[in-house]
């Protein structure tokens, strides 16, 4: 069978994954068992779907909590999301995470990306209107350059495309250029020099014109609500998966489980680094697909101050740093929860820098930035918390992106089941990778596959 034909067969029936409340009474399980590896959003949606139609479901979670890359931190007396934070395209009628949040009574608030204050490396404020006009000009030219790229057989990096699209110079304009490129880098979780321009301008469906909601009421509550009544075994790290006839044997670090099917929802990086042994080994096309999609890095620095010293009520404060290119975008959490908290969101090389630096160095770097921008204010830091998702042994990164030369069919290859082994998670769905909605859909997709097996 041709590989392309094989991958097309793997994608059959994906349309049903977009219907979260399907009734499968005619496919009700006859005592079949399914093991699900990972209690994040993909694992939770798969478990809920299968459990509701009578399958015996066992979720195996390596951590001591649910959520995976959704992690709500509550020690400061307010919900802070160490991982996923937004419900993207919440107003889209076919997107369900916002509905789940409403059902779980989880508070959210719309984000306005056009409300920000921008500062150069000396702390001088740059007019927002100028930055917004530059962004409009950039995106118009980007669309023209994308048309030229479409006629080409080759791929280029998003950075090269961006450079072609905007070349205005000057000190203020350089800060704005960094803002524009930094905002795109935050979407991809890596430097634009690594990202495929062809994929993101031609193949990826853009929902940026629809409202995004910041989750303030505890993102993990949504996952917990999906897993209510389902058995989750915590601190159960899967080491090996064996296929013996019609049975799947799953070996963790402390127990062995048998099932009719297994759904793997672990991050792509875990599969890339061979953290799970497969017997028999996975086919070559699957291994190659793992290597062709990349895992980016997006960290956060949470800073709570004795009092709010920055002016206004914008959604974001953006600071230009001379050496750390993707370091200075920060959410003004006071706008959402009336607490004097800034949440910085470094990605790419800045996120990697954070992985290697102690908290006090990161803290001092931010105090220096803020002291320049607000020299007559008392910048008194109360406490700080830093994420390091690259060092998290169960994540080894943040979310997937398409590097130069890769294509949508690589996601399809990652998603394609191997016998009774199924694959879910944000990196298994081209149209919605890198977000919670995509993870949610893939769990339902694999549950539907198993129902029709």
Q: Based on CA inertia axes, which overall geometry fits? A: globular
The class by helix and strand makeup works out as alpha/beta
Task: Tell me the β content.
Answer: 15-25%
Helix fraction bin: 25-40%
- What does the radius of gyration come to? 22 Å
Q: Give the biggest beta sheet.
A: 7 strands, mixed
Strand order of the largest sheet: 8-7-18-19-20-17-21
Instruction: Determine the N-to-C terminus distance.
Output: 20 Å
**What's the helix count?**
15
Low-pLDDT sequence parts: 1-26
User: Number of DSSP strands?
Assistant: 23
Question: How would you state the average pLDDT, rounded?
Answer: 90
Put the structure in a nutshell.
By secondary structure, the chain is of the alpha/beta class. Helices cover 34% and strands 19% of the residues.
Question: What report would you give on this structure?
Answer:
This protein is α/β, with parallel strands linked by helices. About 35% of the residues lie in helices and about 20% in strands. The chain has 15 helices and 23 strands. The strands form six sheets. It has a seven-stranded mixed β-sheet with strand order 8-7-18-19-20-17-21, sandwiched between helices. It has a five-stranded parallel β-sheet with strand order 10-2-1-14-23, covered by helices on one side. Strands 13-12-11-15 form a four-stranded mixed β-sheet, with no helix packed on it. Helix 2 links the parallel strand 1 and strand 2. Helix 4 crosses helix 5, helix 4 packs across helix 6 and helix 4 crosses helix 7. It starts with a helix and ends with a helix. The N terminus is likely disordered.
